[in-house]
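Hi R.,

As promised, here are both runs. First protein below:
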Amino acid sequence: MASTPSATTDAFLAQLYELLRIESVSSDGAHPEELRAAAEWIAGLIGGATITADHGNPLVDGLIPASKPGAPTVIAYGHYDVQAVGPRDLWDSEPFEPEVREGWIHARGVTDDKGNFFAVLRAALDLAAAGELGVNVRVLADGEEEIGGHSVIHHLATVEGDFGAAVIFDGGMVDAQRPAITTGLRGLAGAQLRLRTGRRELHSGMYGGAAANAVHDLHRVLRRLIDLPEAFSAGIAPVTGSERASWAQLPAGDDLLREAGAVPADPAAGGEFYERTGARPSLTVHSIAAGDPTLHKTSIVQDALASVSLRLAPGQDAEAMSALFERTVREACPPGATIDVEMWPPAQPAWMDPEHPVLRLGFDAIERATGVRPLAVRSGGTIPVAAAFAGRGIPTILSGFGTDEDNIHSPNERMELRRLDWAYSSAREIFRSLPGIGGQTPASLS
């Protein structure tokens, strides 16, 4: 009897370790050769893939052909870039020399995202080698995810044709025993604000109450935003019954706030935690600067700054909300003051209908692989490529097998071997489930 394919074999792990040993850090700008090496490694794994750096760091575009002609095509997206390691003396082992200890692989990038992504790629390659891959798998490997780069978005715009689905393993589980599929991601708009009310600082005794104060006027602008006028709720996608049923099985919002050391915004915040963080827009004032609060200085300042962002709910239009944000700020600026508004590039939110046939296949496939039904969750984060897929009408199975225990972006990043095996088995089951979805046959690589 043939053995059950596994991610814990020596051959699987040896190949993964090759990728993990490449110091493909994108966040410090000091590793262009390593980024290229990781891209070339993935292109070599796939075979016949192209590498383009037209829009930024090297991006891999390749195809793992289906075992039979006429099959639909799906996208497998992941990223090979990783975060910088920080102080090496905080690591218990070398960050780019993988080491297994007590059932965990320790290495930078093993969870985010090399281990998860490699599991997806290896699943497709192994099915193809066995003559059992029922879909063409178009692979997009990103080298800029950790720095918020948009090279894959620009590249995707040049890729023609329809795709039956996309598979991304760059999300997390509910906890170490419960997988999840992300059905919603928040978008983002924001700005740097600078408000001026005069040419120089003034003596508060001589001019206080008569001269405009930049701090006061900036607070008047922010007051208009903080409680978010009703217009900022336009376009919100409804929460489905299956999503709410999943949310009811998640940890209590009050517990999450307490564990994070947060003070609830109001008495209802805990009970509405998932609604507020996954299905509504929210305004955050990140920082304010004016004068020097460490000094006993009785002056009226003429210059005040703030950094402000608006997280957008799934269903909302980031361009429209960004324009509304800027218009609201400018209209709130008091007469006599001037305000500079440096808008951030808006990022679209995404919503993936959990009742879509492709997502239902994803829920079923992961349950078969793990024995546990995934929960539908929404994330407060922003993944631009998922929004781009949603914008093209590509149903996306966004999952992954990381947890809070994995020290992502921190020293001693690690991944449990059991969960790596779940990732591999789940990807195999997903690819086995997708042949009936329809979609394009392979297009030429761009």
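And here is the second one, sequence first, then its structure tokens:
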Amino acid sequence: MAATLLEKGRYVRADGVSHKGDSPIQRQMAYGGRGPVFKGRLCPRPAFDLSAHHEQKGSNMKLSRDEERLQPAILSIGTALPSGRYSQEEIYQMICSCAEPYRNPRIEQLFMNSDIDFRHLYLSRESFTGQESSGELNARFRKGAVEIGKEAITACLTAGSLRATDIDFLVVATCTGYLCPGLCPILGKELGFRNDIQRADLVGMGCAGAMPALQRAYDFVKAHPGKKALVLTVEICSACYCFDDSLETMVGNAICADGAAAVVVGMSDASPIARIAGFQTLLEPSLLDSVGLEHAEGKLRIILSKDIRGLAGGLAAQVIRELLEAHGVAMEQISRWVIHSGGRRVIDAIQTDLGLSDAQILHSRTVLKNHGNMSSPTVLFVLQEVLNDSRAGAPRSGELGVMLALGPGLAAEAALISW
């Protein structure tokens, strides 16, 4: 398998020539940075062809419509943002005032060419010094996560005409701070959830966190069809800044933002409604150290390898191919795309390798432009854009969609949605 071959330091180029290399990323970047190693082959494009799905014009989902109605659905969605809204220019100047390495025209261009207009941050520009202690940062994380987390949950419950006491299972995904007790019991107290509510705090799953959280909710509802689960994703990325001179932290500080999103998952006879048909995960452990957060002098520091933009498209294409094959769905049957807004170049790579049109990727670019990369909530912000699509209209009965997010691991997480 790929991992075994990589450990032996050998790979096979697309022309069949065997070589040795220093590391998985170096070996891939030597060939244009495109396409991870699968089955021992390294190709500048993915080592598989999604066009095969386009030939399956008679392909249908394996689930009948009656069976689909037994699938958990996303009953409602709500989002929230901190009140502090800043332009990229404002954020850049804020950082320059306390971090000398950023006072460089090349770094300024990194901020200005990000395709991001605004980001919401849970901080005050007037009082920001860039000198917060680890304790102060975690306190700001707690205060901000609880505040906007409550707002997102309230918006979600209101949209579904639900009360907090209607929820049987609460899942919270976050990676930008650590609390014990976690956010589940804190929010349970704040919002009046029942004392017997089941809960799960998922910590450390990064930008992909919404997908495994959604799967935990799906599993719960499948096991208990009469019950409802609520998923909250909330991040205060502004509470884990680090102002060193490394490019990866500069990129993180140029695109990451704060936000929260919540969904309720349950059974419903309504139509059309976003039903979850299934999930697919792809882990590439050879890239374990390429994305995430690490502790540096007691603070969280972003790890965001520049090479990810060259790997994202191939990983996305592989996990989506496996997802569609598992459900007997052709690529051309997917009309709605919910792609995590990981950054301009990541979106570009995924669009290219999946062969998506500008219209199909528009909602991901819209979220990036207006909010930046909020880590785990971001893909749910994109889902909200898709559900409220004023251009193409809301999804109609019979349509299919794919949700996709990439995160630490390196993990590609996908879900098939049917309306």
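A quick note on the second one: The two ends are 37 Å apart (CA to CA). Let me know what you think.

Best,
J.
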